[in-house]
Write a structure and sequence with these properties.
Distance between the termini: 10 Å
Radius of gyration: 18 Å
CATH superfamily of the largest domain: TPP-binding domain
Strand order of the largest sheet: 3-2-1-7-8-9
Helix content: 25-40%
Number of helices: 10
Structural class: alpha/beta
CATH architecture of the largest domain: 3-Layer(aba) Sandwich
Order of helices and strands: EHHHHHHEHEEEEHEHEEH
Bound molecules: ligand BV8
CATH topology of the largest domain: Rossmann fold
């Protein structure tokens, strides 16, 4: 049956072949840093310089990175599919946008964004942020990366659950299924009758919940799948 609404969730694995580190592979981002030191509000309060340096490095790396054939395939799908394509990413890089995807929901925030910890004003992040940078709106020295840290509520959750309830097809790409609530999206989509496909190098923590698993690098598996969907 031809799906009318495809909801896609991407994780660090789709950006791996663009040279951006994943989180949990050996030598990955979390190998050099403990999650609680660089991706929690407590870690930021404890050592804001360490956290700003961590995100300044990732912002520079992401700015220098190019989208790969996986990102480009998803942009082709959005442009060519007769139904609706909703792209939700856990990634904080902008490679989906660089590949031409128009509707991207950054549920964990974005490296290109800055947020005021005092008044919640948002503005485009400078290349480098420093502790005590002031907010252009309220002037408080409370600027932080606009990133959702552990223990913080991801963005757009109501809208995301609406999309999941209406999906005919839920596709998860390059995520290990360790982090909630994103790892729970497949169960939610299934509850509403969606077909589910996982793209990964190996089954994720929630791999058993998918109807179909396509193993291999996203730069190979996604172009084939998108050609299949657009061709049919
Ligand atoms: C919240 C921004 C509630 C930061 C990130 C115990 C049990 C269950 C849950 C919890 C628990 N204790 C705490 C929690 C909640 C916690 C959580 O899930 N913790 C985990 C660690 C257990 N979650 C939260 O805190 C979330 N918030 O729950 O709020 C709440 C309720 C009310 C009020 C307030 C709050 C917030 C989570 C968001 C944290 N921020 N990112 C940053 O990026 O620096 S999460 C971080 O991990 C990234 O966003 C990343 O995207 C995400 C998930 O990682 P993956 O994307 O999956 O990356 P990973 O390396 O793990 O996997 C890569 C995959 O790609 C692998 O499978 C690999 O095989 C594959 N791959 C590699 N190469 C390729 C490939 N696939 C295809 N092709 C390739 N070439």
């Amino acid at each position: 049956m031809m799906p009318q609404k495809i909801v896609i969730l991407t994780g660090a694995g789709i950006s791996a072949e663009s040279g951006l580190g994943t989180f949990r592979a050996e030598g990955g981002l979390w190998a050099e840093h403990r999650i609680e030191d660089v991706a929690t509000p407590e870690g930021f309060a404890r050592n804001p310089q360490l956290v700003m340096d961590f995100y300044n490095a990732r912002r520079a790396q992401a700015a220098a990175a190019s989208p790969n054939a996986g990102h480009e395939a998803l942009a082709r799908l959005e442009a060519g599919f007769s139904g609706e394509v909703i792209l939700i990413t856990q990634n904080v890089d902008d490679l989906h946008e660089k590949a031409g995807s128009q509707r991207v929901m950054h549920m964990h925030g974005a490296l290109t964004g800055a947020l005021c910890g005092a008044c919640e004003h948002r503005w485009p992040a400078p290349d480098r942020m420093s502790p005590g940078d002031s907010c252009p709106q309220c002037n408080a020295p409370a600027a932080r990366p606009d990133i959702v840290w552990f223990g913080e509520m991801p963005y757009d959750m109501d809208e995301i659950f609406d999309h999941l309830s209406g999906a005919d097809l839920f596709v998860s790409i390059g995520t290990s299924g360790n982090v909630y609530p994103a790892a729970g999206f497949v169960a939610e989509a299934r509850r509403h009758g969606a077909q589910t496909i996982e793209f990964n190098l190996e089954p994720s923590e929630v791999g058993s919940q998918f109807d179909d698993i396509r193993l291999g690098p996203a730069t190979r598996t996604l172009p084939d799948w998108v050609a299949e969907v657009l061709g049919s």
